[in-house]
Amino acid sequence: MTNQEIVSMRGIVKRFQGVTALDGVDFSINAGEVMCLLGENGAGKSTLIKILSGSYTPDAGEIFFEGKSVTIKTPRIATELGISVVHQELDLVPDLTVAQNLFLGRTPSRFGFIKSANMQEVAEAAIARVGGQFSPKTKVSELTVVQKQLTMIARALTIEAKLLIMDEPSATLTADELQQVFRVMDEVTKAGCAILYISHRLDEISQIGDRATVLRDGKSVGVHILANTSQAELIEEIIGGKRGEVATQRSSTAAVEDKTSGLYIDRVFIPGVIDIRNVSIPRGRITGFIGLGGAGRSTLLSALFGSERALREVTLDGQPYDPHSPRQAIARRVGLVPEDRKTQGLMVGRSIWHNMIIAFNKKGFGTAKQRSFSKPKETALALGVRFHDFSQLGGQLSGGNQQKVVLSKWLVNESNVLLLDEPTRGLDVGAKVELFNEVHKIADSGAAVAVTSSELPEVMMHCDTIYVLYEGQVKEFFVTQGLSAEDILHVVITGEVRNA
Amino acid sequence: MNNPIVTQQPIEARATTGLMVVAKRYLVKYNLLLIFVLLCVVGSIVSPNFATTANITNVLQQTSLVGIVSIGMTFVILTGNIDLSVGSVAAFAGMIIAIFVNDGMNLWLSVLLGILCGVISGAVLGGLSAFLTVPSFMTTLAGLVGIRGATYLLSDGVPVSGIPDVLTNIGTGRVGGIPDVGIIFISIAILAAVALRFTVFGEHLYATGSNEVAARLSGVNTKLIVASAFAICGALAAVAGVLLTARLTVGQPTAYVGLELDAIAAVVLGGTSLFGGRGGVFGTVIAVFMLAVIRNVFNLMGLGSFYQMVITGVVLIIALVLNRIAENRGKR
């Protein structure tokens, strides 16, 4: 690792209509290192990236690129300096080929004609460097997510980027694909390029990162060498201790095999998709489901909620339970918080109030408003949803508050079986802790709670019992207490059960 | 946690207490009403006949039938769908009651059957779209062509007369100077507004239009809601068809060609989003009157219908642009 400074920012200030997004941020990154940028949603991470990539210009402060003072007024200037961004929403043109995308905006040409042969050659070399196994002639729309990310990185390589910014690349990748991206990142840094890596997942940050800069409320509060810093210390600094204790491991060890409490699954079967047997989601407990993408976690919850057709041999509190539609499930006081908040959970264009009562008023012609007016307010208060007006639109809230609104829809409905499908996806560390604190309270009040997650530490911290799914089947069952992550991870990835 | 409802954007929250800001917010919300009032002021300046009782009731008489159809269309567009069949359905209903009555059927029974035809065609076309997930644009386009054809077949393409006076009186009569059809229009508008604002059905209709998946996962029977919206739209189209037959005193197979475009224009001009979930009857009613007043002012000024068409197009664009500007301001 060389210690030459690529970019250094001093005293960066950025305001939006009176709101200070960045308040004197200092930041620097060296050649050949992976610098992680940590902070909650709204801490100023994306503003900082946008300043580096030329989308915003700062109101105050200085930026030095390789020791020289620069102003990055447009994205084009950023590209010319050698700053390249892999966005979360991969901005590639889907109908063009990989090669065409690699050279987008600077297509090699002579007299206006494209030099096609040259393009293919350079593109092929760039793809080979990132370990991609696809032809540069492939259309981008036919690529997988990870291949698209590799294409973006290859694009950075072809412009000989000195700083590569990666904005939450892991959000859409499976564990295997992420490892592939990590290997490429190693290659890139060895060549002397610096990488600025943004992610909410602390475990992968400790794996890939060299140093981390923590932002909080628009200020840079610390720079850490990751090898010497524990995750707990990082969390503490990210949330700034303002939300109290991180929830501790659950301690309930009551009998698990009580078939008359909560949901008991004899069998849930969808041909070719899932075949789940003997799963118990009892009251008063949080039951976790973990597995790789496609292992059937979401499908199981959808089947239990009646939104997916399945053969169901299930009992709810000892009574047969076989919902053919969400409505029938809701009538039995079962609620689902779906995987994708914005497209399945929240009505972004409707007010908070309307979002909360939508599941409640199932019957009757009477005015919904009068029948249930105080309830949404009480629920919002109890959950600590932060907003200034009930008529605020759902889409105007932050991610954590949106998820709380979706959750409170079921509390308003007095649901006592809650199916939470990846409830913390896309939430920042503080919001995750807050959300799970509420889930703990709900479980403690006697509800049966099922949670899926792709983040093992989260499941281990918050669930009483864990089922590991692999290719649509239950592979293993754990009681969380005293368990090590390796025990579970082995089953998750391989589907093999180790002899205890 | 002593006060969990914390203001997220303190600056904005403080600003909303200012009187000017409140005024501005209402201006943004009711900008269409303002444009309408301005238009009326201009109308009374350019034409001394504009603000007379005779003229106003005349406008109401002319605009009520399109207004009734536009209210039905509002329901459909709020679910994020579109109904192109309303013109044909209206003509069909108006024709079939003329034929029933001529065959000696009880007048009110035939009116009821005519409206039932509208309900059935709406439910079938909307239901096809909702349950088979084909675009409503296509199913109702099929309805537009097919039902118009059926209307011609019913009468061999010629008007059918012989409508009893009881019905024609409703089409042209007045109560206390107000046209009967105007009273019917306003009553339907109020009923529709109440249904959308205060009933569970209305709540579910908005939810379906706003996010169909989220609504379904919240227990809303979204397909049934969409089919119902189409049934209501078909019913109101049929009502307009019956009222037109009453006014013309004949069942007219060529009636209401292009009605669907007038209705859609009024609904969208009234601020209802074509993507569903936002808008309402109030805006539609104002927009219907606005379009009618424009036409009326031009008539009073003695300008021909060619001018009217051009200017209506221009006004539509201006109003939509103003609406969008106001909306964007309102978001900030």
UniProtKB/TrEMBL annotation, chain B:
The keyword Transmembrane applies. This is Unannotated protein. The lineage of its organism: unclassified sequences, metagenomes, ecological metagenomes. CDD domains: TM_PBP1_transp_AraH_like (cd06579). InterPro entries: ABC_transp_permease. Keywords: Cell membrane, Membrane, Transmembrane, Transmembrane helix. One of its GO terms (molecular function) is transmembrane transporter activity. It holds the Pfam family BPD_transp_2.
